[in-house]
Amino acid sequence: MKPQYRIRNWSEYNAGLKQRGSLTFWIDPSVLEQWVVEDLSGKPGASILYSDLAILTMASVNVIYGLAGRQCQGFLESVFELMGIDLPVPDHSTLSCCMGNLSIALPIMPKQGARHVVVDSTGVKVYGEGEWKARQHGISKRRTWRKLHVGVDEATGEIVAMVVTTNDLADGDVLQAILEQIEGDIEQVSTDGAYDHRHCYDEIENKGANAVIPPRKGAKIWQHGNGKGTPHPRDENLRYLRKHGRQRWKRDSGYHRRSIAETTMFRLKTIFGGKLRARTFDHQAVELFIQCVALNRMIQIAKPDSYKVEA
User: Fold this and answer.
1) 20 to 30 Å CA-CA from 250: which of 72, 109, 256, 260?
2) Which domains, from first to last, does the chain contain?
């Protein structure tokens, strides 16, 4: 029988879920105070009118509410009019020009102690033939996607690192870029078998963390020490697997918590649709980064505290 769970903090969780849809949550008054750049650049040509924060806010509204550029412009203009705010709104072409140059920072809650980071990637559609046509007539050469690589805090569910690449880059090649973004101590890094490479273990060791990576099927011992030197962590995992089985290794190592990353990917695609509207890579990366930022803010404002119900 599937286990049943109940939520302890239902009233707070319910209020937070409603808050996610509030315009005042996504368009904060402090943002409006910095909407326009008052100082002139002093350089030839027109000075910048809208701040990066204004462009980021408009891009966030665009992504969160699934609006096209002109629709987003009209939406914000009507919101400002209803709120009695006398501020100009960037037109869709200004948003398009400036969006690719935005610098995105993840909102992460401070944490005591070391993190257990789970790492995974997912593909996000860009353009190409539909799924039905691909099944019927084969995959078109135009089909492509972008890969979003994330590091997720196992305890809080927050995305603590993110990288966007093309679909031809292997997961293991991005691990170091993920780890370099994470501030503070890391206790454990859990990944799937795609990261079963020597350099991945070295990168995790350099961060002072314990690597929990399942060796691939048919894996061989890397370092036959015969009592000489310290055994490689990957070889220790492989020996444990051979002795006790894969299921017990997953349970004893805490590998099952890696599913938090898969849950994060599922939530991201469920909320934002799993398809990018932007046409250039820089804009596509920013669009995905904004989705990650929005997902973190959603988690921070509304997260269930559940417990298992005994049968």
Assistant:
1) 109
2) 4-103+304-308 (no CATH), 115-264 (3.30.420)
Query: Average pLDDT in the 278-292 region?
Result: 91
Neighbouring C-beta atoms of residue 40, cutoff 10 Å: 9
Contact yes or no for 223/231 (Cβ under 8 A): yes
Q: Indicate whether 161 pLDDT > 90.
A: yes
CB 108 within 8 A of CB 184: no
Q: How far apart are the C-alpha atoms of 257 and 240, rounded to whole Å? A: 19
d(CA 48, CA 60): 20
**Please, where are the H alpha helices in the chain?**
10-19, 23-26, 29-33, 52-64, 69-83, 92-99, 131-137, 175-180, 198-206, 233-244, 246-253, 259-272, 281-301
For 309, list phi and psi in degrees, rounded to 5.
Answer: -90, 125
Distance of CA 20 to the CA centre of its chain: 18
For 217-270, the pLDDT digits (tens) are 777 887 776 556 677 888 888 888 888 888 888 888 888 888 888 899 999 999
Cα–Cα dist 212/23, whole Å: 41
Strand pairing category for 144-153 and 306-309:
unpaired
> Contact 294/19 with Cβ under 8 angstroms?
no
pLDDT per position as a tens digit, 54-96: 999 999 999 998 888 899 999 999 999 988 889 999 998 998 8
The torsion angle over the Cα atoms of residues 144, 163, 257 and 191, rounded to 10 degrees, is 80
* Cα 195 from chain centroid (whole Å): 18
DSSP type of residue 256: G
